[in-house]
Design goal:
Layout (H helix, E strand, L loop, with lengths): L1 H26 L12 H7 L1 H10 L4 H14 L8 H4 L2 H12 L5 H32 L4 H12 L3 H7 L7 H28 L4 H11 L3 H11 L9 H15 L1 H9 L7 E4 L2 E4 L2 H4 L3 H13 L11 H22 L4 H4 L4 H25 L5
Antiparallel strand pairs: 1-2
């Protein structure tokens, strides 16, 4: 077993290096002592015309650029076979980044943002699940497929779909179509949210609430927040800070939603989806990375990582590290988006998923504009 794990790690290294190379190409190599390459984003910012339209309006910073380059490699060229294993670790890098992101918060921050967040997120989870199931019933959609879409649109996209699949006795085609629907709208929202947020004049905090509530997939929430409110050495992203608190709260509801959906099924506690055994016990579905995030919050709150204002060298290093983790992980996310696979989705899953996603995003924006202050 240990030998197999070692082989898997070695096999993953080339793909991880490819994701890292994409991140360096877009973000620059200054952090590694090579200021000669400032990154594609810096080149775009150096031109007044490009900066105005590509960065200030379209928010085409290194976060979106890493995803776009990954998508180009996957869909125009071919992802090398030697890189496939490493690319599949992209979600691990994103989760590690979220854990380190806890260093931006204190217990007071989490309590203040979390109190409002619980009310808003819980309301949207219940509303989205009920709306999706109601709409699916209206068009006679298969109940299992409808349950998958309701979990995916209400909680955290792909993870929720995989978690709910065995509980609702979903077929493999249900899983594939649901994931394709979620990814399709996630890609669209990834580019539309920063643009709409700029046009309606959302503050970074308001945008974080909107993204954390309205975008379907966790990685895309992260990307949209950093696109709208980029993080630099001198500026911590308020959108990212707020959006991830709302996302963490949303993810925490995942095991409970799965258990509720399981009530409607008498299937055994273990099934197989696309050849992977998925256990539906509460622990197997619990988002363990949340524990790491909260541990970082407590370490920061009690000064174990040094002073927060101005940030200690330890916190400065952690901030740089999680930004690199995000860039690496999102490059891998882009290389996992296949347009040919997304085109296969259609019919009732697309109709129900589209309606639920759009309604959720629009209602969330209205709530933000009406009830959320510009500052936390």
């Amino acid at each position: 077993m240990e030998h197999n794990k070692a082989q898997l790690i070695v096999k993953a290294i080339p793909g991880i290096l490819l994701m890292f190379a994409i991140a360096v190409f877009t973000r620059g190599a200054g952090d590694f002592g090579f200021p000669q390459w400032p990154g594609v984003e810096a080149y775009l910012a150096s031109n007044e015309y490009w900066k105005k339209y590509l960065i200030d309006i379209l928010h085409l910073n290194y976060i979106l650029l890493t995803i776009i380059i990954g998508m180009i490699i996957r869909n125009i060229f071919t992802v090398p076979q030697w890189a496939v294993t490493g690319i599949k670790t992209s979600s691990l890098f994103i989760k590690l980044g979220v854990i380190l992101l806890g260093s931006m918060y204190s217990v007071v921050d989490v309590a203040r943002l979390g109190g409002t967040g619980i009310i808003i997120v819980l309301s949207f989870v219940i509303f989205t699940v009920l709306f999706t199931l109601w709409l699916a019933k209206r068009i006679n959609m298969d109940p299992a497929a409808a349950a998958l879409l309701s979990a995916g649109t209400a909680i955290c996209g792909v993870s929720a779909i995989i978690a709910a699949a065995p509980a609702v006795r979903a077929k493999t085609t249900d899983v594939v179509y649901s994931i394709a629907t979620i990814l399709s709208f996630g890609i669209v929202f990834l580019f539309i949210f920063p643009l709409v947020g700029t046009l309606v004049g959302l503050s970074p905090h308001q945008f974080g609430v909107w993204a954390g509530t309205g975008i379907l997939n966790s990685g895309q929430i992260l990307a949209a927040c950093l696109a709208f409110d980029p993080e630099t050495a001198a500026h911590a992203s308020v959108s990212l800070k707020t959006g991830q608190i709302y996302n963490i709260i949303r993810v925490i509801f995942l095991p409970f939603v799965v258990l509720v959906l399981a009530v409607f099924s008498s299937r055994s506690a273990q099934t197989e989806v696309d050849g992977i055994n998925i256990n539906t016990s509460l622990w197997s579905r619990f988002p363990v990375f949340v524990i790491g995030f909260l541990a970082m919050v407590f370490m920061t709150s009690f000064g174990l990582l040094g002073q927060t204002s101005p940030p200690s060298p330890e916190l400065v290093f952690i901030r740089k590290l999680y930004n690199w983790f995000f860039a690496i992980g999102l490059a891998g996310l882009g290389m996992q988006i296949s347009f040919s696979e997304l085109r296969r989705v259609g019919g009732k899953p697309l109709a129900v998923g589209s309606a639920a996603a759009v309604v959720k995003a629009v209602v969330a924006l209205m709530v933000v504009l009406l009830f959320i202050d510009e500052q936390p």
